[in-house]
Design goal:
The chain is an alpha+beta fold. 29% of the residues lie in helices and 29% in strands. The protein has a domain of 288 residues: 2-Layer Sandwich (Antithrombin, Chain I, domain 2). The longest helix is centred in the first third of the chain and has 24 residues. Its main location: secreted.
Length: 434
């Protein structure tokens, strides 16, 4: 598969490095792995075209979400790391059940192909490629539906999630055992990410109103084609801001065989560090290093077209590489960010997920995301998971609170409470009169 088709995964690593300084009784229960994606004969149109469209949309979403998080005061001065592919996969499954404005907004924010065949075959093709296996690295992704066991989801929605996204449904007792259900989902995430993502769904995120949770997990572990010698790693200064430094472990690769993909502009240096692979998809880490301390130049290059142009301009040459070892663990609650990006309806009582259950009674109560990355002399380990929590809207009940508005003539009495004896009686026709 063309390198650009999986550029999304590379961008996830790039984002981290750029910021290092700064249920249902009608659902058959299944707990097996992903269902096989449709064969070419079952899918009208070229699967590769769909994968290309989905990948391009994912890359645009990655840049958009990065900018949204980077501009959020809550993350000012903090590292950022996330898997846009994990988030877009979980939300694409959610999109399959959305209708009307809700669907339009989600599709726009994710930059999803409007053509149903291209969208579905694109995700199926990418998932198949990412799970194809390689003897030199580990890379896998998985989706799942977790449904309230008493809730009647539409079979068409459940079938679509399973057939095209490998998201098989497991019935859970959200209504009667919310905490147990939360722990079951979190254990699945831990298993899929080699225990790197723990407690994806925090306490309180699942309750008796939860009807569906959609999850994605992704895991990668690979070694550099050109590994760093641990003996060359030294403690050095890392400039976190003008005039401010911290001590970090810096790796060195400056020998004659330090040949890397490289390009530069007036404001950037760009390095490609490939991971070892055999017959599987080729993976690399791209690093955008500003020539000055300001990250603006690197962040502006996160535009999908600019990033593609930079990759195309790379040539293999000797580069003296000095690079920090680092480990990042991040977690995000995404409703506010996603709403600000253009999909607020999904989180409101105006949400329309009738494609899931045939009613307008569902909305997204939470989107949680956790990510982990460790970069060392040997290579990189990265994992991420996303959970979309879909709850039942509270039915608008009739307000039975009485209103007593004495704005017209009335009668009143004063009684002795023990015996009920009326001590005084009267009426008020005009409170201002005598």
């Amino acid at each position: 598969m063309n390198r650009r088709v999986i550029g999304l995964l590379l961008l996830a690593g790039l984002i981290a490095l750029g910021c290092i300084g700064a249920g249902c009784t009608d659902i058959p229960e299944t707990t097996s792995g992903q269902s096989a994606p449709p064969t070419e004969g079952e899918t009208p149109g070229p699967a590769a075209e769909g994968a290309g469209n989905v990948s391009a949309g994912n890359n645009r979403f990655a840049a958009d979400l990065y900018r949204q998080l980077a501009s959020d005061p809550d993350y000012a001065g903090q590292n950022i790391f996330f898997s846009p592919y994990s988030i877009s996969s979980a939300l694409a499954i959610t999109y399959e059940g959305a209708r009307g404005t809700t669907a339009d907004e989600i599709g726009s924010v994710l930059h999803l192909p409007q053509n149903e065949t291209l969208r579905r075959s694109g995700f199926a093709g990418l998932d198949a490629a990412l799970n194809s296996g390689d003897e030199n690295y580990t890379l896998r992704t998985a989706n799942a539906l977790w449904a309230e066991e008493t809730y009647p989801f539409l079979p068409e929605y459940v079938d679509t999630a399973a057939r095209w996204y490998g998201a098989n449904a497991t019935n859970l007792d959200f209504a009667g055992d919310s905490e147990g259900s939360r722990q079951t989902i979190n254990r699945w995430v831990e298993e899929k990410t080699e225990d790197r993502i723990r407690d994806l769904l925090p306490a309180g995120s699942i309750d008796s109103m939860t009807r569906l949770v959609i999850t994605n997990a992704i895991y990668f572990k690979g070694t550099w084609v050109k590994q760093f010698d641990p003996a060359e790693t030294t403690e050095e200064e890392f400039r976190v801001a003008p005039g401010e430094t911290v001590q970090v472990q810096m790796m060195h690769r400056t020998d004659e065989e330090a040949i890397y993909g490289y390009t530069e502009t007036g404001t950037l240096q760009v390095l490609r560090m490939p991971y070892a692979h055999a017959d599987g998809t080729e993976l690399s880490m791209l690093v955008l290093l500003p020539r000055e301390d300001n990250l603006t130049a690197a962040e502006e290059a996160l535009d999908a077209e600019t990033l593609a142009d930079l990759r195309d301009s790379m040539t293999d040459r000797r580069v003296r590489v000095v690079f920090p070892k680092f480990t990042l663990e991040t977690e995000y609650s995404l409703p506010r960010a996603l709403a600000a990006m253009g999909m607020p309806t999904a989180f409101s009582y105006d949400a329309d997920f009738s494609g899931m259950d045939g009613t307008d009674m569902l909305f997204i109560s939470e989107v949680v995301h956790k990510a982990f990355v460790d970069v060392s002399e040997e290579g990189t380990e990265a994992a991420a998971a996303t959970g979309v929590v879909v709850n039942l809207k509270c039915a608008p009940g009739e307000d039975t609170t009485p209103v007593f508005r004495a704005d017209h003539p009335f009668v009143f009495v004063i009684v002795e409470e023990d015996s009920g004896t009326i001590l005084f009686a009267g009426r008020v026709v005009n409170p201002e009169g005598s």
